[in-house]
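question for whoever is on the cluster today: can someone run the full assembly for these? three chains, 822 residues total. i dont have access anymore since they changed the login thing
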Amino acid sequence: MSVSDLSSFTPSSGPTVRAVKDPFHGDLLEVSMGPQHPSTHGVFRMVVTLDGEVVVKLKPVFGYLHRNHEKIAENTTYLGSMPYTDRLDYLCSMTTNWAYALAVEKLAGQAVPDRAQYLRVILAEMTRLVNHSCLVGFLFNDLGTSFTPLLYAFREREKILDLFEALSGSRMMCNFQRFGGCRVDPTPEWLAAASRLVDNYPRFLDEYETMLTANEIMLARTQGIGILDAKLAVNAGITGPCLRASGYNYDLRKVDGYGFYPRFDFKVPLGAHGDTYDRYMMRILEMRESVKILQQAFRDLPGGPVMDPKAKIRGFRPKAGEAYGRIESPKGELGFYLISDGTPNPYRYRVRPPSLINLTLLEEMCLGHTIADSVVILGSVDIVLGEVDR
Amino acid sequence: MLGSGIINGLIVTAKNFVGSYHDPKRMVTVQYPEERAKLPENYRNFPFLITENATDPMGTLRCVACQICEKECPPQCIYIEKSKDKKPDATGKPQLYPAVFAIDTSVCMSCQICVEVCPFDAIKMDQVFEVAATDRFTGLLLDREQLAKPNSYFHEIHPTDAAEVDTRLATERQAAEEKAKAAAAAKAAAAAKAAAPKAAVKPAAEGGPTA
Amino acid sequence: MESLEQIRDRLLARFPGATVTLVTNPGVAAEHSLLLDAAHGAELALFLRDDPALQLDYCSNATGVDWPDKEITDVKKTTVPDPAGGAPKVVEEKTKHVEPGCLEAVYHLYSMALRHGPVVIRLRTANRSDQVKLPSLTPVWRSCDFQEREIYDLYGIVFEGHRDLRRLLMWEEFKDHPMRKDYVDPDDYEWEPTPHAAVLERAKAHYPVPPAATPPEAPKP
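^ ran it for u. tokens below:
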């Protein structure tokens, strides 16, 4: 096979493993990883071209979980899309709900009461704990430490999900935020339980870090692997912990100051090398900062209603116009772009998925590394296929 | 020292391993189905319809077939056909009732929007999560006989919510009764006035309660 | 950050041949946008990225919007004086014209370096059928890579200068563009009876004999 053949190759067809010839590299092996591969975190597929064990070309293939979420949302009411947003990033439904509610509130000029704003911060930061715990657990699974670190992380995650269930009725499909506030007001018992959990969280992080952060095998496998250059990352729209691991300080909680984040005192952790290890550490450090935010939020949580009394549940029709609302979801910048034409359904509904755009530079990060490392690099980017494919 | 990180990690797992034999707090799993975790009160699964009276479930459905939930349901899993005739509801007011009320639980995504939009508190979320059927096509399509559950069951699964709904309905009923009484009194007064030779202006309150 | 009017004026001064129009947003958010002409789109975008005062180095969101052809009825009212000396008559003259639709690509630009934004820019195709080419902004912002592929996939805008313009979410053999407003979805979904008449009717049209043993009708009371 010639070079031109390689470039015109369409990855959605063809055998899963085949030999290709490259005039520069010589004999290569093209392997289709996924969509059922356990390390691809869902139904993601990478077509990797290997020189021995080293990746020389990597093409991601998407769409196996595509259900045209945007079209569904354009055919349903504004409120009707809210439960569908749970299914975008199904690990972080609370933040996805918030991002959508924020965009619609911006579109309709809807005010949110103080208590709801605090509650949103609390739930978003708890979601960050859930997401990052999961991520570090799965990252070690990708590294080959079969399941022990993952179940340690899941043990803590389950405690938070129990709280979400007690509050919203569902562990993962929370459907909790509404335009103008939150659906349910938490009871004092719930707040006390959540506050206790948050106070105990650093103990889990310490245990987890003792177990793994200094592990020599882990250091050897992650340091200097999958380096992401900050300048390139900005141009490629990489956001969230991946960008900050490369040392670029851009956190929407600070930049946009949406919600009540300007009222909280927290730091934005930054990496120095942009390698897999930095991306792992970024998650641990962000969890520690989230605990700080949560403690402040539980301390300052004001009373009052959680829903703006003027907000409409049924017959919600924003004025014609458009708005782009974005928040710092645990995976990066999650945005919703809405165009209203004055009808009950949005004219245009667009999700800016951080998981998808963070994969833009996957090939650059994986080139020259072994196939086992590319699995770890993909794990450290942190994707959820519900959001990638929408 | 090279390897100290691994050894420290192994100490942590060893502690957890030994601890799981002594400390019940470290046992984080439950042996389902012999043991069951307690469901939180807010837990929701699939919707059900509330009836006032357990002995006559179809006659005392709170649902008046207004079809708001059918319109608002995001995955469109509710199907309602209005009745042709009217039946008296709990307050004695004649209302339509659903001749057909079907929910396809294989499509339902348990989002609770039907509950939120229902102005009559007629549909609520159930907590039965062990749902299985041998027939994929019709087994999960629940009709109104399967969906109807008495108000006492609602009290069992969502006590706080049910108490709040009951007090609200009671006050609404009282208000309706008072209004009806006032309207009747006004009507009587009007009738008395009409009986008098000149007066023929009807009071605005006539027509009974519409709320 | 400068206002959009200032940016527009600077763009027009720098690129005399280009047309840049301000598109106002009547909504509460009041995020107005700049409509760039397709011929100069790429150079204008490059200027926006590299201009030291703007430094819009980060393209957050790139998306398509479909504006189908709109039939607009113009009502022209003329007052005709009655020759008989009565009250003048008002004669309504109705004419219809079709406002041609277009496909639009919308980009939300932010500056990570200067932490400002958004600047919303739009590019429009000439029509929705045969002239659907727009310049690709992927050479300017790498983040448009997958998003432009998605727009191509779901809306059918062809981005010239994109290095790898393939379908992103739908499969290669798929023909239509599902996010267009006039897209008709096929009726050959997997047979899945729901209580809804519309779904049933469509399914019946496609499957004359339902595979389910029992008729998938809503249960009779």
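summary bc i know u wont read the tokens: Residues 144-155 of chain C form the longest helix (12 residues). The first strand of chain C starts at residue 20 and ends at 23.
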